[in-house]
Specification:
By secondary structure, this protein is mainly alpha-helical. The chain is about 60% helix and about 5% strand. The chain has 3 domains: about 100 residues, Fumarase C, Chain B, domain 1 (Orthogonal Bundle); about 250 residues, Fumarase/aspartase (Central domain) (Fumarase C, Chain A, domain 2, Up-down Bundle); about 100 residues, Orthogonal Bundle (Ribonucleotide Reductase Protein R1, domain 1). Bound molecules: arginine.
């Protein structure tokens, strides 16, 4: 980076900015990533100034040509960013003036960096939300694919991480799918409030030029111009909402990560994660570690932190723009990068999960997971539920003593606890009978899982 002096406000100043202060107050190192949005905003502003009679068409064309050239230079890595020019906005404006001369100095008419930066961040976040929404959908498609294949694969369902009742792996994946559907909704909702156009607010009070805010709104694809100029330059709710949506998403990914970590352990041994998503140990030759889910689980911390940073940043700020706001970018950008990285890792990994069906089934057979089915059986034969609960409790105690699951006992053994039990009990004590019996919307019966997948496919198709 070069250190050209900043002449953008030179008029009022008697000495140059202290070199450390220039670096301390600069944001160009991190806000240059918004160069494309800054140029798009400037192009719209220049077109609008021309329509408003502030710039001539020739001036507008010079500005547009200059901005396009600058874009090319940035993209080719030829652009020289200067810390002394503080931020992406003044770097690009100075380069424009160096390129096209005096007309470059007219671009900032009727505009301030305050409405400019607010516009740039909104455009940036909107673009990133669109990428994130597409990536959530890709992850959900992967889940549907595995859920469909594994709609009837039986595994233990847990409460308190203790074996509770059998479920299917497809049903479990569809629970993950639901979490992500809500995340999709949260980001889509955040996009709506992001998609508001600040230009025209200028520094804080609006501008004296005959600007046409509806025109810039349309040129930039915003839904509406911001209603209030003071609010327009100071509002960062959308950044906070983005981090809130990101935090909930990451929380969901940590839950899935935790399950993947458990399931790959020797103790569970429910799934295999292909080697490309794992690493080894430098000392223990036998190790294969589920690094990707572990790292995603860990990355939640920084995203929650960014949410707290932004809430604290905005707390107690008086209207309108304050320099504090420059601190919005690093947490926001890191949250964006983290969300995209975690989603990409998950979207690549989930379709590659290899369930070990025999181990899942074995585990479901071990934990008395059909105990509720036995109780329901007795109720169907006329026994009050509390009494049935008691009978099954005794049967389970006997099973623990004898190391036998309910389905492994003889009829005579079961009848010790109730003579209501007959030969047909074995239909409900099987794992497949147990899951098939939960046959209603939202239940784990394979038929219902397939129906849920069909509804889910329709929802994705309607996005
Ligand atoms: N770099 C600044 C930011 O990120 C741009 C706006 C500065 N405005 C001002 N009046 N100093 O917020």
């Amino acid at each position: 980076m070069s250190n050209k002096t900043n002449q953008q406000w030179g008029g009022r100043f008697n000495e140059p900015t202290d070199a450390f202060v220039a670096r301390f107050t600069a944001s160009v190192e991190f806000d240059q990533r918004m160069y494309l949005q800054d140029i798009r905003g400037s192009i719209a502003h220049a077109k609008m100034l021309t329509a408003a009679g502030v710039l001539t068409e020739a001036e507008r064309d010079d500005i547009l040509r200059g901005l396009e050239e600058i874009r090319g230079e940035i993209e080719r890595g030829e652009f020289e960013w200067s810390v002394a020019l503080e931020d992406v906005h003044m770097n690009i404006e100075a380069a424009l003036t160096a390129k096209i001369g005096i007309t470059g100095k007219k671009l900032h008419t009727g505009r301030s960096r305050n409405d400019q930066v607010a516009t740039d961040i909104r455009l940036y976040v909107r673009d990133e939300i669109d990428l994130i929404l597409a990536e959530i959908t890709r992850l959900q498609e992967g889940m549907l694919q595995v859920a469909e294949r594994e709609n009837a694969t039986v595994m233990p369902g847990f409460t308190h991480l203790q074996t509770a009742q059998p479920v299917t792996f497809g049903h479990h994946l569809m629970a993950w799918f639901e979490m992500l559907s809500r995340d999709f909704g949260r980001f889509a909702d955040c996009r709506e409030r992001t998609n508001i156009m600040p230009l025209g607010a200028a520094a804080l009070a609006g501008t004296t030029y005959p600007i046409q805010r509806q025109m810039t709104t349309e040129l930039l694809g915003f839904a509406a111009p911001a209603e209030n100029s003071l609010d327009a330059v100071s509002d960062r709710d959308f950044a906070i909402e983005f981090c809130a949506a990101a935090s909930v998403l990451l929380m969901h990914l940590t839950r899935m990560s935790e399950e993947l970590v458990l399931w790959t352990s020797a103790q569970f041994d429910f799934i295999n994660l292909p080697d490309r998503f794992c690493t080894g140990s430098s000392i223990m030759p036998q190790k294969k570690n589920p690094d990707v889910p572990e790292l995603v689980r860990g990355k939640s911390g920084r995203v929650y932190g960014h949410l707290m940073s932004l809430l604290t940043l905005m707390k107690s700020q008086p209207l309108a723009y304050n320099k504090d706001n420059q601190e919005d970018k690093e947490p926001l950008f890191d949250a964006i990068d983290t969300v995209k990285g975690c989603l990409r890792a998950f979207a690549d990994m989930v379709p590659a999960i290899e369930p070990k069906k025999e181990n899942m089934r074995e585990a479901a057979l071990r934990g008395f997971s059909t105990a509720t089915d036995l109780a329901d059986y007795l109720v169907r034969k006329g026994m009050p539920f509390r009494d049935a609960h008691e009978v099954v409790g005794k049967s389970v105690a006997y099973g623990i003593e004898q190391s036998k699951d309910l389905g492994e006992m003889t009829l005579a053994e079961l009848q010790q606890f109730s003579d209501t039990i007959e030969q047909d009990v074995f239909e409900v004590l099987t794992l497949d009978g147990s899951v098939a019996a939960r046959d209603h919307i939202g239940g784990t019966a394979p038929k219902q899982v397939l129906a849920a997948i069909e509804r889910a496919k329709e929802k994705l198709a309607a996005r």
